Amino acid sequence: MTEFKRNISGRQYQDYLTAQLAVANKFSFVTRFDVGVFEQAENLLAALQPFFIRKAVTTSWLANEVFPENDEIMAEIYEYQLNDQSLAVLLNHSNSLFDWGDGALSELPEDLALYHNDTPIFSVNGHEHYYETYAAETED
User: Fold this and answer.
1) What's the whole-number mean pLDDT along residues 77-96?
2) pLDDT band, very low/low/confident/very high, at 64 (cuts 50, 70, 90)
3) Where are the beta strands (DSSP E) in the chain?
4) Is 105 helix (H, G, I), strand (E, B) or coil?
5) Which of 39, 48, 124, 128 is deepest in the core (most CB within 10 A)?
6) Are 94 and 100 in contact (CB under 8 A)?
7) Cβ contact 62:120 at 8 Å
C-alpha cells in the first residue's frame, strides 16, 4: 500500500478514475449515521441505483474504522458495479478525490474506494486528506 496526500482534481481526477476502469470493477463509499445524507448524496444514490450491488451497516471500511460502542458513528457502506456508465455518474457529482468526505463532511458520501472483485485497488479518506493505492493481482 502506498499513501498520497496530494488531492487530484479537475481533468486529472477524471483521467485517473477513467484509467482505473482497466483494473477495477466495483466501488464503494459510506454514509455515516451521525452526519446524515444530504440532498446531493440522495441524488447520487438514486442515479447509481442501476449499478447497486449491496449495502451493509458497519463500523469499519477500507479507509476508516470507528469505535463500535459509539452507535452515532455507525455507517452504511454501499457497493456498486464500476463501468463507463457508473463512472460517468461519479464524475457528474464530484470533481476531486477529497470531495468524498472533505473536512466539512461535504454533501457527498465519504471514502470512495475501488476494487477488483473484493481486492482493494484504491481508497480515499477524504476528511483526513489522503488516498492509498494497493498493489493487487487482478487475474480471475
Assistant:
1) 96
2) low
3) 2-4, 26-32, 52-58, 60-61, 64-65, 75-81, 110-116, 119-125, 130-133
4) coil
5) 124
6) yes
7) yes
Q: How confident is the model at residue 51 (pLDDT cuts 50, 70, 90)?
A: very high
**Contact assessment for residue 20 and residue 114, using Cβ atoms and an 8 Å cutoff:** yes
How far is it, in rounded angstroms, from Cα 107 to Cα 41? 6
Q: What is the rounded distance in angstroms from the CA atom of residue 136 to the CA atom of residue 129? A: 23
Half-sphere exposure of 75 (CA within 13 A, CB side): 22
3-state secondary structure at position 118: coil
Tell me the pTM. 0.85
Dist CA 51 CA 89 (whole Å): 10
